[in-house]
Amino acid sequence: MRITGARVIVTSPGRNFVTLKIETDQGVYGIGDATLNGREKSVVAYLEDHVIPVLIGRDARRIEDIWQYLYRGAYWRRGPVTMRAIAAVDVALWDIKAKALGAPLYDLLGGRSRDGVLVYGHANGSDLEDTVEAVGRYIDAGYKAVRAQSGVPGIDLAYGVGRGDMYYEPADATLPTETVWDTRKYLRYLPTLFEALRKEHGFDVALLHDGHHRMTPREAAQLGKSLEPYDLFWLEDSTPAENQEAFRLIRQHTTTPLAVGEVFNTIWDAKDLIQEQLIDYIRTTIVGAGGLTHLRRIADFASLWSVRTGCHGATDLSPVTMGAALHFDTWVPNFGIQEYMRHSEETDAVFPHDYRFDKGMLYVGDTPGHGVDIDEALAAKYPYEPRQLPVARLEDGTMWNW
Ligand code: GCO
Ligand code: MG
């Protein structure tokens, strides 16, 4: 089965998405997501200039060999741009193989390990009361797990807050929005938020929180400790993880479960975190970490150390990644949870898909492949719109982590 063509489709039905479509001489095609939020065009160029030319004529069934060719052959390894381009090719090829065999993708991975996939939604509020209500709306909508982000008293504009409920979108402007940050205010406030959440909603619902790389390891340890009475499902990205050892300090001081990895690209970013059992959940996902071929490797390695998966699933990952991730989640033995931010209706229409939400779970259907397609005529009606992610500064103007 020869690859006869490959094209990049950029569309912006509410937000930007980059999609790779690979065609074969047997009429079967596959699609993969290559979206890198705020840096979309760099992946488009990488695919068009350096990847597509070497794909033409190759045997589409040789997924592993093509992965190794693109990874080793580039010489310049890893990085978000390279690994997203490889992910797009990899997912499109898995899609093709599964379609050609007439099987849903999870069957090629090893078959179903579960009926449905536990997901968590994003509740955002501008203050404590607002956030307690927002979490309530998710519980009413059937969610069993909810991530709670809240405005912090005394901080004007912080991450993930008060910009719409179900359709939160951080890439909100042509040039980066500047947000303000103060960790001491946040550390004082957050336990009061989770105390109120547990008081109002009880302990059955799983609650999660994202620190978005804002704390030092010591501060993260303090936060984890102060949240212990509220039984979090996880505390995510409490500190940056370029230095994997940083998590040792956090781990020594708290039993709050730790999750990290949405910005990781390969197993090398997570190796020490996993094998030293410094985290509980690994957040790498298909589009971020080189596709199913590499994510599967990370998950298998993680399973040796009782680390479970918790794939990134924000709206900047297209429905193509969501569909492929759900097939992965349906199979992976050490599954933890899947992030699920609903896409807009415009996005859903451009990417018809075979997955559905019911009572806090997502279910994939039995359509051959990963079950997500692209309506190219509709996609063409939404031209690219430059958008960038925000940045954060401390109150004195110092640049901080976002
Ligand atoms: C999450 C993330 C996102 C990111 C976004 C960046 O946990 O879902 O932190 O909200 O900020 O994916 O593009
Ligand atoms: Mg996050």
From TrEMBL:
Annotated function: Catalyzes the dehydration of D-mannonate. Has no detectable activity with a panel of 70 other acid sugars (in vitro).
Keywords assigned: Carbohydrate metabolism, Lyase, Magnesium, Metal-binding
Similarity remark: Belongs to the mandelate racemase/muconate lactonizing enzyme family. GalD subfamily.
Matches recorded under CDD domains: RspA (cd03322)
UniProt KW Metal-binding keyword: yes
Gene Ontology MF term list: magnesium ion binding; mannonate dehydratase activity
Entry EC number(s): 4.2.1.8
Top-tier EC class: lyase
Full protein name: mannonate dehydratase
Protein's pathway: Carbohydrate metabolism; pentose and glucuronate interconversion
Pfam families recorded: MR_MLE_C, MR_MLE_N
Ranges of residues in domain Mandelate racemase/muconate lactonizing enzyme C-terminal: 128-257
Catalyzed reactions: D-mannonate = 2-dehydro-3-deoxy-D-gluconate + H2O
Keyword Cytoplasm: no
GO biological process: amino acid catabolic process; carbohydrate catabolic process
Cofactor: Mg(2+)
